[in-house]
Amino acid sequence: MVEEESVRVVRCGGSELNFRRAVFSADSKYIFCVSGDFVKVHSTATEECVHILQGHRNLVTGIQLNPNNHLQLYSCSFDGTVKLWDYVDGILIKTFVVGLKLHALFTLPSAEDSVFVIINKEKPDVFQLVSVKLPKSSSQEIEAKELSFVLDYINQSPKCIAFGNEGEYVAAVRDFYLSVYFFKKKTTSRFTLSSSRNKKHAKNNFTCVACHPKEDCIATGHKDGKIRLWRNFDDDKKYTYTCLHWHHDMVMDLAFSVTGTSLLSGGRESVLVEWRDATEKNKEFLPRLGATIEHISVSPAGDLFCTSHSDNKIIVIHRNLEASAVIQGLVKDSNIFTGLMVDPRTKALVLNGKPGHLQFYSLQHDKQLYNLDIIQQEYINDYGLIQIELTKAAFGCYGNWLATVEQRQEKETELELQMKLWMYNKKTQGFVLNTKVNMPHEDHITALCFCNAEKFENPTLVTSSKDGHFKVWILTDDSDIYKKAVGWTCDFVGSYHKYQATNCCFSEDGSLLAVSFEEIVTIWDSETWELKCTFCQRAGKIRHLCFGRLTCSKYLLGATENGILCCWNLLSCALFVFKPSEPRPLYIQKNISREEVQWGVFVPRDVPESFTSEAYQWLNRSQFYFLTKSQSLLTFSTKSPEEKLTPTSKQLLAEESLPTTPFYFILGKHREQQDEKINEAFESELVQLPLTENIPAISELLHTPAHVLPSASFLCSKFVSSLLLSKETKSGEEIPEDVDMEEGKESDDSDEENDFTEKIQDTNNTDLGEDLLHQLSKSEEKELRKFRKVDYSWITVL
Amino acid sequence: MGEFKVHRVRFFNYVPSGIRCVAYNNQSNRLAVSRTDGTVEIYNLSANYFQEKFFPGHESRATEALCWAKGQRLFSGGLNGEIIEYDLQALNIKYAMDAFGGPIWSMAVSPCGSQLLVGCEDGSVKLFQITPDKIQFERNFDRQKRSAVHKMLVDRQYMGVSKRKCIIWGVAFLSDGTVISVDSAGKVQFWDSATGTLVKNHLIANADVQSIAVSDQEDSFVVGTAEGTVFHFQLVSVTSNSSEKQWVRTKPFQHHTHDVRAVAHSPTALISGGTDTHLVIRPLMEKVEVKNYDAALRKITFPHRRLISCSKKRHLLLFQFAHHLELWRLGSTVATGKNGDTLPLSKDADHLLHLKTKGPENIICSCISPCGSWIAYSTTSRFFLYRLNYEHDNISLQRVSKMPAFLRSALQILFSEDSTKLFVASNQGSLHIIRLLEGSFKHLHTFQPQSGTVESMCLLAISPDGNWLAASGTSAGVHVYNIKHLKLHCTVPAYNFPVTALAIAPNTNNLVIAHSDQQVFEYSIPDKQYTEWSRTIQKQGFHYLWLQRDTPITHISFHPKRPMHILLHDAYMFCIIDKSLPLPNDKTLLYNPLPPTNESDVIRRRTAHAFKISKIYKPLLFMDLLDERTLVAVERPLDDIIAQLPPPIKKKKFGT
């Protein structure tokens, strides 16, 4: 099933949705947004992702509707191509290869066969707006090299370019000037604002531009929060402008409504401002949008707006300024103090989200599941304010408990610490605050650790701190006459020679607790809290500690600051020291990313994979996700990107949209038979007719939009021949060998604190996800395998 | 430049009165400004915004409306119900005529300039025909119940604009039938006069919009609000290829802190004035042909005439206010210090005298004699002369009675250096010379104006030896009279720009003349020609930064021991021109800071030029040399003026 491809680093969702303005479809049913290398199509009504348009090999930098066919979408990317998509079916129609890095894309209804893109040719910081002629050709991939130059020395951001009055002119802003190029006259007017260093004009910089759809009016946003409305700009002398000033900080984006009666603006205040009739006194607000507004776009139908925010979310807003839908991606605009964790319940990735929140992010569906407000205080967005920060979090007892630590340090001596313990409430399916501990320690808390052993009925939490202590917290009965309740109290305080406690870890069975004090590791008996023994190896301060699992549970691993991994045998108290590179690591991938990798985590797979080669065995049971400094989430994968996400959604939609034609009945009948045939297939070893879904000619016929199909006569013979019974059946793919699942310490080669491997299951047959097969005996299985060799491929597409 | 001990005087408690109306005349490019105390000032916008004429105020004659009529005739209407016409040549009131409708609130001239329309308190609108020498009542429009506060620019009635409790402060009627109204709710509204319907509404302020002025081309107008903001509206085309046009609010200007009571629209500038006493002229960049200094914003706060005179001998300062005079003795010190030190006073400044005028009229001019024993001042109808007697620390004041009948009103008063003669420029253009004796006086001579002219003299200068008297009017040249022979000696050729200051140098008897375009001439009276230095500087031209200064030179004086020095000042700088040094060209630094003493003499000499400028004292109302080593500088900080004004409308400021 799995081909032995080489392991590659792939982006696994969580990409920026707010990188460029979102685009509405003509009927406002769909909203398109860039997402890394993909374009996502969301429904504006349900927020669900309908399609993911994949095909670009680098970051998508611009999307626009095809002005001549509103069911098509253009996209451009750093990979140098402009692609035309059918977004209803999610199909790539054409690829135009430009060959230069494209930074933004604009389309105009008046320029039928050309689009405008921003490129940079020579110097790294000098960008040009050029028009690209898209040649008409029936082939899929077309070279589009005919560029004609429009404007030079512009800003690379598409917010700084706007086309006005149905493409009569284009306005571009950069630094302190606005240039307007008139296509008919072929002249450029340039208007410069004072840029003197004095206080009044110091922040005159242009930040964005928008053009009035009906009138000759250009709106520009500025760094000091002003909006200027320029008029009469076809005259170099008589030009004039009005100022609108509400924003106290930079205007991030501007957009006119479709009729031009109102202007929308947004910025760091997280308030969408609607200026009606472009007058200063007549404005409406939509406040509390949660994060800086990065982009604003307006649907062509005029009924919806949407704002893209810095916390990677898109809010769809009704014309009457009511938010109607939120499309939330992985929040990225805060420091990740907590690291990456996996929620044992939902298997969601847990990390810092919005300020003061923990986010639960589903890796499988690339969307945020849940946002837990930890700090529960109003967040005031202002420079120079010292905020409360969520620094540590840990899950315990199979996700029943969550411990969080927040801190705020204004001065060296004034540390505010708070530890909160949250209990999972089954009824509400969420975490509820149980205990709040003010100043659990005198100094920063360095580690939190729950005892996850089964035999411990009493949940136990250990915190270690820079103040030299580690504290053991246990759950006790906190009932009074009013209600039954439980709460956490401190049970034991331990220290070791006033060294700072740097980390702590429970052994798998919970009998031992290891606490590292700078360079010394101490082992404590978790029943009596007696110091059992100490390991002192002056190899450097210990950053991480981890007990081995299962058969390796006698080993304790420690990672030091200077890159040495120490392994102690707890039975013999022997020490092995090795550098990560010296003994043979299981797997090394070099050059995974240009940036520093900050955090990593192993996430258990829903369906385990089976890699045969030894090098990839560690990927079998879980997937390794890591977060780089620029906060892009990456993972290792062996599949090609097209294969990675299941194409079910695509197919479903295609089927739903099928009209009731004779084809539909053919397909419908076949589907009914399908289920029976699966069962039959297992019982009797009959050779079946191939199903229509598997015939490429038919699926191509059905999934290609009608306007790009070749003529019917050409298709007919192909279609008929495809319905004929073929003699040779496809040979099944290579059968994976049984994989020995003894992979004791797969996670130990990482120097991070990730240890979320599941307990090993007893089954050793994992290549097929059907439960049925688990009960089959070995002999039956062998027979099945023979059968699969004969005809098998069609099952995979189910 | 030399070192001076400077008396830095900040106790001149002068507050200009607020501006009530402004009216712009396109033909002569002059601006008439009326203030709340009834003063009317005429600014010549072509002559570097110089305030060339003024009509003193009157307590009962608060001006509420001001307008120009055909032939550059200026009319005003006020709360006493009189229509006044001003004589711009003789600088007096030509006539006052009661409109018989109670206080006059508004006034407008018909587009052809031959009819005058006034709106009165009783709700009537009265039409007057303007005849060559007077105005004549023509008809009365039907009375309305409410008082007419509408300014009607065209003779047409307009109904239904006013809402309840909302006062229309001003309307404008455009030739295409659009009516623009501004009201107390902060709105600027556009109405269709044919149908009486509202076309467009601009809410621009939270407070009243108090004034409106439309340009002659009717493509732009300006409104002023009670918040101190002035908004510019322009008629711009909707798209470049359509003829449809719309009114758009373009730029706001916040140059005022208080109510903008009056606005005017000249072809190239927006003019506004209000309670905060500033007259602001904001040029429109798109209308300015070349980007020179005319394109800069002007803010005129202080009058362009002298309000202060000084007795050098007794160290006295006489301050002139609207209705009283104050006499102060300067403080003194015994301490010495380095350059830049502030010396402690051993004796504080003394307020010697507070002289209140009789009657409702404002003081036009005043003077103290150099010896300190005479004070003279004049109102529109009376001339006062006082004798001061000093007995130790006590002062006794004695009025010289029985002034001759011809000494009724003076535009300028000057004492000779030895305090034996008094020179009075009257508003009929004549100059009177009076000999002062102990306690009495004697009329010596009267120079009658040149035949055919009635232009008043408003600037006088006497030579220190008492032989020469120079007098200048608003436009014609400077006349020099020989006092010994009591005849006209010569006339300095007329120059395009009005004279702002005059002085005659000791010994050489060179007349130094400053004009409103910042040119300085030196004219030798004995030789009847310009001096060599003056010719040189005219040939070479002044430094461009010097010509860009926007306040006129108001006083010139000389150093008794250094004949090559000319001391002069305007509101923002004090300058000593050293005629012995080379003139600066446009490449040299004009405003050279005083070079530090440790720098070598070579550099100092190389960078030195004739203009030594100090900008330490500002706004500088008066500066003179008391003796060789002592200067007196009178400053009036703007903050002190604002502190004495009523509080402005409170506005929430972001971040406070």
Give a structural overview:
The complex is a heterodimer of chains A (798) and B (656). By secondary structure, chain A is mainly beta. Helix content of chain A is 9%, strand content 41%. In chain A, a hairpin with a 3-residue loop joins strand 40 and strand 41. Chain A is globular, with a radius of gyration of 31 Å. The two termini of chain A are 14 Å apart. The C terminus of chain A is likely disordered. Chain B has 656 residues and is mostly beta strands. Among the domains of chain B are: 130 residues, YVTN repeat-like/Quinoprotein amine dehydrogenase (Methylamine Dehydrogenase, Chain H, 7 Propeller); 113 residues, Methylamine Dehydrogenase, Chain H (7 Propeller), CATH 2.130.10.10. Chain B is 4% helix and 46% strand. Chain B has four helices and 51 strands. In chain B, strand 23 and strand 24 form a beta hairpin. Chain B starts with a strand and ends in a 12-residue tail after the last helix. At the A-B interface, strand 22 of A face strand 20 and strand 21 of B.
Topology, pairings included?
The complex is a heterodimer of chains A (about 800) and B (about 650).
Chain A: E1 8-11, E2 23-24, E3 30-35, E4 38-43, E5 49-53, E6 60-66, E7 69-77, E8 81-86, E9 91-97, E10 104-107, E11 114-119, E12 127-133, E13 141-143, E14 147-154, E15 161-164, E16 169-174, E17 177-182, E18 187-192, E19 206-211, E20 217-222, E21 226-231, E22 240-245, E23 251-256, E24 262-267, E25 272-276, E26 283-286, E27 293-298, E28 304-309, E29 313-318, E30 323-328, E31 341-342, E32 349-352, E33 357-362, E34 367-373, E35 389-396, E36 401-409, E37 415-425, E38 430-438, E39 445-450, E40 460-465, E41 469-477, E42 486-495, E43 501-506, E44 512-517, E45 520-525, E46 531-536, E47 542-547, E48 555-560, E49 565-569, E50 574-578, E51 597-604, E52 622-628, E53 633-637, H1 641-644, H2 648-656, H3 662-683, H4 696-703, H5 712-723, H6 778-790, H7 793-796
Parallel strand pairs in A: 9-13
Antiparallel strand pairs in A: 1-53, 2-3, 3-4, 4-5, 6-7, 7-8, 8-9, 10-11, 11-12, 12-14, 15-16, 16-17, 17-18, 19-20, 20-21, 21-22, 23-24, 24-25, 25-26, 27-28, 28-29, 29-30, 31-32, 32-33, 33-34, 35-36, 36-37, 37-38, 39-40, 40-41, 41-42, 43-44, 44-45, 45-46, 47-48, 48-49, 49-50, 51-52, 52-53
Helix pairs in contact in A: 4-5
Chain B: E1 5-9, E2 19-25, E3 30-35, E4 40-44, E5 50-55, E6 63-69, E7 73-78, E8 82-87, E9 92-98, E10 104-109, E11 115-120, E12 125-130, E13 135-141, E14 168-173, E15 178-183, E16 187-192, E17 197-203, E18 209-214, E19 220-225, E20 230-237, E21 245-253, E22 260-265, E23 269-274, E24 279-283, E25 298-300, E26 308-311, E27 316-320, E28 324-329, E29 350-356, E30 365-368, E31 374-378, E32 383-391, E33 394-399, E34 410-415, E35 421-426, E36 431-437, E37 440-447, E38 457-462, E39 468-473, E40 478-482, E41 487-491, E42 499-504, E43 510-515, E44 520-524, E45 529-530, H1 532-540, H2 544-547, E46 555-558, E47 565-569, E48 574-578, H3 601-607, E49 611-614, E50 620-627, E51 630-635, H4 638-644
Parallel strand pairs in B: 1-51
Antiparallel strand pairs in B: 2-3, 3-4, 4-5, 6-7, 7-8, 8-9, 10-11, 11-12, 12-13, 14-15, 15-16, 16-17, 18-19, 19-20, 20-21, 22-23, 23-24, 24-25, 26-27, 27-28, 28-29, 30-31, 31-32, 32-33, 34-35, 35-36, 36-37, 38-39, 39-40, 40-41, 42-43, 43-44, 44-45, 46-47, 47-48, 48-49, 50-51
